[in-house]
Amino acid sequence: MTSIFTVHAASGYEQLMGRWSRRLAPKFIDFAGLAGGEKILDVGCGTGSLTFELAKSADLAEIQAIDFSPVFVAAAKEKNSDPRITFNQADVTALPFADKTFDRSLALLVLHFVPETGKAVAEMRRVVRPGGVVAAVVWDHYGGMTGMRMMIDTVAALSESGRQMRSRYCFQPMMQPGEMKRTFAEQGLADVSEAELMIRMDYENFDDFWAPIRAGEGPLGRYMTTPDPAERDRIEAAVRDAYQAGRPDGPRSFANVAWACRGIVP
């Protein structure tokens, strides 16, 4: 098993996270660095948030983008018109590229969903030339996602299964301070640095916030497929109350922090 992220439809993912990963992508590129003429690997490309931002950010020679989900790969291919970009289905723990192929290997919001994280980082390093860059960014589920924690904590207050789900969600791989930095160093990367990147998630109303969860997307969406209909209604009502916080339904904005890590291939 190479990914624990649940996806049913690319459109559902776009509403759940794709629109926010597009906001994060430029900040991540600034942190990871980029130069004209480079060959880049986008690991876990999803629907192409980072891939297409890379294409806009520099005059790159080539962008290879891979994802484990055929749903994501098909959606990204459909949107692509840039001959420099190639999308393929592949496993981050067994990348289908020769050693030292790329100048940079980048992973946007991927590593926390890969059970064999060390192996994934080792593969990202293997395919990058000496002096090249490996970089990744993951959400800080425990301390940095206010809107999602509001939702997760509400669900956890209602049942033991909700509390167990919260524990899994908050302590996925690479999410604790310094954890990704240690993993990069353990895999032989040099000059490893870590930073925090922040965006805001802005919602039009509760339905904009909740609809992809109701549709079964992502970790909480997967959990919401398990209760009976009455319990699902109770959970939705409780989360709605938390979102609205005693005010009329409408726009809400939540700060979200991600951990970013960067290392050099010796």
TrEMBL record:
<keyword id="KW-0808">Transferase</keyword>
<feature type="domain" description="Methyltransferase type 11">
    <location>
        <begin position="41"/>
        <end position="135"/>
    </location>
</feature>
<protein>
    <submittedName>
        <fullName>SAM-dependent methyltransferase</fullName>
    </submittedName>
</protein>
<dbReference type="InterPro" id="IPR013216">
    <property type="entry name" value="Methyltransf_11"/>
</dbReference>
<keyword id="KW-0489">Methyltransferase</keyword>
<dbReference type="GO" id="GO:0008757">
    <property type="term" value="F:S-adenosylmethionine-dependent methyltransferase activity"/>
</dbReference>
<dbReference type="Pfam" id="PF08241">
    <property type="entry name" value="Methyltransf_11"/>
</dbReference>
<dbReference type="GO" id="GO:0032259">
    <property type="term" value="P:methylation"/>
</dbReference>
<dbReference type="InterPro" id="IPR029063">
    <property type="entry name" value="SAM-dependent_MTases_sf"/>
</dbReference>
